[in-house]
Amino acid sequence: MAVVIIIFFILLIFGIPVSFTLGLSTLLYLVIVDSNLIIIAQRMFAGADSFTLMAIPLFIFAGEIMNECGVTRRIINFAQSLVGFIAGGLAHVNIFASMLMAGISGSSTADVASIGNMVISSMEHAGYNRAYSAAVTAASATIGSIIPPSILMVLYGSITGISIGKLFLAGFIPGIVTGLSQMTYAYFMAKRNPDKYDGDRILFNWRNLGKSFLEAIPALVMPLIIVGGILSGVFTATEAGAIASAYGLFVGIFIYREFKVVSILRTMINSARTTGMAMLIVASASAFSWILAKEGFPSAVSGIISGLSENPDIILLAMIIVMLIIGLFMDTTAAAIIMVPIFAPIAAMIGLDPVHFAMIMVLTFIFGGVTPPVGVILYVASAVGKVKMKPLIMEIMPLIGISFLIIILVAYIPQISLFLPSLIIR
């Protein structure tokens, strides 16, 4: 097992895609222990064969539909009308638009890809530093996996059996806190160095705000339908994905009237590509997780962490640090599948609420998406914004620090994540 794990990290360091790294490591293990190689196919199929996981391609499809029919442009216009006049205006627009887009796509990388090019170019044209613009885009995109619907929460719920409705509710306040914290930072930087971190701003206009809000309403209603339907028991998370897709088609064809025949093929291809990437990681991570369980790796890690202290707060901090380190080298989805079965029992042992700990893990895994060397969101923002990695990392470091502080706050103030679930779900 030690050899397999060493090979696993070597492959990651050499830039092999994480899905292939997981699959090759599993294959190597089966060869070493002289097991039947068909096991890898069986475990990969079993890992992806889940009704709950069907929500992932459906939410991806719904997000693609909404992007195709002009939702992104309308949300950015609404955000600009609402917060564009504040110091650091377009940075606030960037962050607030990501908060609104979070309720549509459920994916951080999708948010970067959908609004990144448009917002980064606008910020540079208005006088903002381009690396800073890309950094704000990458950091704010993490909100896409916190505010519901969240594909990562669907994945977590499928692994643990925790109510996805509760997980969705738990994400609202941490997501809003994250967005407001980033906007506070953007305001501070604009006041401190306006030549680099501020630019041309629009004047506040009630008429423009009302018009842009009315245009954005069909998009803003979508997360309410999803979360409301799940909580009321009208449909499951998977069925919610189908409802969201149907609603997206209705909005695109009959309300915005921008979803044409040619859009159907493009949407299906983009959805299939994104789904294929996500589900290949899910399948290969499930196989790798199986060999870890077979070798008693979760028990070993549990014993080490539990032996550090009898203080639950210290044990929780140790788990957060381990997850942060894992997140430096592993894709968010793969990290969740592998680490959740290891740490969830430890959290239960020290008396943590399962929904509370789920939010801690979700925030920690998302944190890995914007940290080098394997931060997927970071690389997407670099590519979309046409910014070199070094200046991007320099600009995003303070925002990464803010994300870490939010993880600690959510970890040690449970009501941040538990207030809404306890208020609505008895």
Mind sketching the topology for me?
Layout: H1 2-13, H2 18-32, H3 38-48, H4 55-68, H5 71-83, H6 89-105, H7 108-126, H8 130-141, H9 151-160, H10 164-192, H11 194-197, H12 206-232, H13 237-255, H14 261-294, H15 297-306, H16 312-329, H17 332-349, H18 354-368, H19 376-385, H20 389-412, H21 415-424
Helix pairs in contact: 1-2, 2-14, 3-14, 4-13, 4-14, 5-6, 5-12, 6-7, 6-8, 6-10, 7-8, 7-19, 8-19, 8-20, 9-17, 10-18, 10-20, 10-21, 12-13, 14-17, 15-17, 16-17, 16-18, 17-18, 18-20
Describe the protein in words.
There is one protein chain. The protein is mostly helical and 426 residues long. The chain has one domain. The chain is 80% helix and 0% strand. It contains 21 helices and no strands. It has helices at 2-13, 18-32, 38-48, 55-68, 71-83, 89-105, 108-126, 130-141, 151-160, 164-192, 194-197, 206-232, 237-255, 261-294, 297-306, 312-329, 332-349, 354-368, 376-385, 389-412, 415-424. α7 (108-126) runs antiparallel to α8 (130-141), α9 (151-160) crosses α17 (332-349) and α12 packs antiparallel against α13 (237-255). It is globular, with a radius of gyration of 21 Å. The chain starts with a helix and ends with a helix. The mean pLDDT is 87.
The number of E-state strands comes to 0
Largest sheet: none
**In terms of quaternary structure, what is this?**
single chain
SSE succession: HHHHHHHHHHHHHHHHHHHHH
Rough outline: globular
Query: Structurally, how many domains make up the residues?
Result: 1
Straight-line distance between termini: 44 Å
Strand content: under 5%
Number of helices: 21
Low-confidence stretches: none
The Rg value, from CA coordinates, equals: 21 Å
Q: How much is the average pLDDT?
A: 87
Bin the helical content.
over 70%
SS-based class:
mainly alpha
